[in-house]
TrEMBL record:
Residues 139-161 are annotated as: Disordered. It comes from Quercus lobata. Keywords: Cytoplasm, Initiation factor, Protein biosynthesis. It is found in: Cytoplasm, Cytosol. This is Translation initiation factor eIF2B subunit gamma. Residues 354-444 form the EIF2B subunit epsilon/gamma LbH domain. Component of the translation initiation factor 2B (eIF2B) complex which is a heterodecamer of two sets of five different subunits: alpha, beta, gamma, delta and epsilon. Subunits alpha, beta and delta comprise a regulatory subcomplex and subunits epsilon and gamma comprise a catalytic subcomplex. Within the complex, the hexameric regulatory complex resides at the center, with the two heterodimeric catalytic subcomplexes bound on opposite sides. It comes from the Eukaryota.
């Protein structure tokens, strides 16, 4: 498809602490005992996109990710791993590698995207419309957007989700308006007068930006060069392109063009009137079919922002919160097992041939037990992933949890709705509910923890 593909793999994401660490950057967090980045790389490989730049924040994280890729994908993919400074954001990451980008079109994929939506469909829509950007949208997860950062089931009902407000044209091919969740919670207000003026624009709050974009490289690089304060593709670059698209259309009707400023909010009365005019004109049937000529006959530069809306039958979720980490692990060994790449047993689970089970120990459907792990007698595992080389005592109950590699669990422990990182030791009779335990931590015998994050202090 002659698209250059950039995978933004992040670094040690703050909202995934204590799951991430210097030893385990975000890209290597396990989903069904495979690094989350493997789902992205193999999905691209299946689409015959094998020439990739993987961007990682931080030199140490980039070295770990690079070592893993060179071992796992030798002779399969051509991957260049580029280290960028931490906290530069998605726009800053692309700015840092701009000199590597040479193709006419660039596909940018988040390294935490677990999906079976074909990237080729997004690329085809982008080419069909000759768009400057095409964003993939998918249905927001039922439990609410995972950006809210909630980590337990109860939180999901308490916290208001951060929804994206998205405006589409009647054909649902063009992106006319976008406000991200953070803006919606703060001070974006769409007044009734504006909504009346919009006409046929369809407002949607049930879609999420999947962080898979196709960009026209020349326009992307121009924006990154001119707007050096832009930090985020989703919150800065995409809304800017959408706003400037609409304003270029409204100029045909003689309306004034306001000066763009990256994070400026549409607050003032004059701006709201302008927005009203923009949206009214944007929603007319002739949107993007208007003449590209200015009033004096000179050629005007206009651009199109498009969307590709994933079919509801497809799976699409980002591992960008602790809640999402648990959800994706559960789904990939459950309803979305087609993404896992594993063969399931007649009991609809995955138990490695080298794993050992004690007497009267049950591993239910939608569970996974990794290589070399051992379980004692009278244990119960439900809807959980257990990693490699774990040592689990007797009378242990595990439900709706993820246990990583080399974890030791004493007799009589109960683990529910929790994430246990590698090399953790749980002593006897520990009860954990909705907890996260960071790598190498020791939980003392008899501890009873609920909704806590337990981790060693960073040195």
């Amino acid at each position: 498809m002659d698209f250059q593909v950039v995978v933004l793999a992040g670094g040690t994401s703050k909202n995934l602490i204590p799951l991430v660490s210097k030893e385990v950057p975000k890209a290597l967090l396990p989903v069904a005992n495979r690094p989350v980045l493997s789902y992205v790389l193999e999905h691209l490989e299946q689409s015959n996109l094998k020439d990739l730049i993987v961007v990682v924040e931080g030199q140490e994280a980039a070295a770990l990710v690079g070592n893993w890729i060179s071992g796992a994908y030798v002779d399969r993919l051509h991957v260049e791993v580029a280290a960028v400074p931490e906290d530069v954001g998605t726009a800053g990451s692309l700015r840092a590698i701009a000199h590597h980008l040479t193709a006419k079109d660039i596909m940018v994929v988040s390294g935490d995207l677990v999906s079976d939506v074909p990237p080729g469909a997004v690329a085809a829509a982008h080419r069909r419309h000759d768009a400057v950007v095409t964003a993939m949208l998918s249905s927001a997860p039922v439990s609410g957007p995972s950006e809210s950062g909630s980590s337990t089931g109860k939180d999901k009902t308490k916290k208001p989700g951060r929804y994206n407000i998205i405006g589409l044209d009647p054909t649902r091919q063009f992106l006319l308006y976008i406000a991200t969740g953070a803006e919606v919670e703060k001070d974006i207000r769409i007044q009734k007068s504006i909504l009346r003026a919009v006409g046929q624009m369809e407002i949607r709050a049930d879609l999420m930006d999947a962080h898979l974009y196709a960009f026209k490289r020349s326009v992307l690089q121009e924006v990154l060069d001119q707007k050096d304060t832009f930090h985020s593709l989703k919150q800065d670059v995409l809304p800017y392109l959408v706003r400037s698209q609409l304003k270029s259309e409204v100029l045909l009707n003689g309306a004034p063009q306001a000066e763009e400023n990256g994070n400026q909010k549409v607050n003032s009365q004059s701006n709201q009137v302008t927005l009203s005019g923009i949206l009214a004109n944007a929603s007319t049937p002739s949107f993007h079919q208007l003449s590209g000529l200015g009033t004096n006959g000179s050629t005007r530069r206009t651009h199109k922002c498009c969307v590709y809306i994933a079919d509801n039958s497809k799976y699409c979720l980002r591992l960008n919160s602790i809640q999402a980490f648990s959800d994706i692990n559960r789904d990939v060994i459950g309803e979305a097992s087609r993404l896992s790449g594993y063969s399931f047993s007649p009991q609809n689970n995955i138990i490695h041939p080298s794993a050992e089970l004690g007497l009267k120990t049950t591993v239910g459907p939608h569970c996974m037990l990794g290589e070399g792990s051992q379980m004692g007698d009278k244990c119960s595992v439900k809807r959980s992933v257990i990693g490699r080389h774990c040592r689990i005592g007797s009378n242990v109950k595990v439900a709706n949890s993820v246990i990583m590699n080399h974890v030791t669990i004493g007799d009589g422990c109960s683990i529910q709705g929790s994430v246990i990182c590698s090399n953790v030791q749980l002593q006897e009779r520990v009860n954990l509910k909705d907890c996260q335990v960071g790598a190498g931590f020791v939980v003392t015998a008899g501890s009873d923890c609920k909704g806590e994050a337990l981790a060693k202090k960073e040195k």
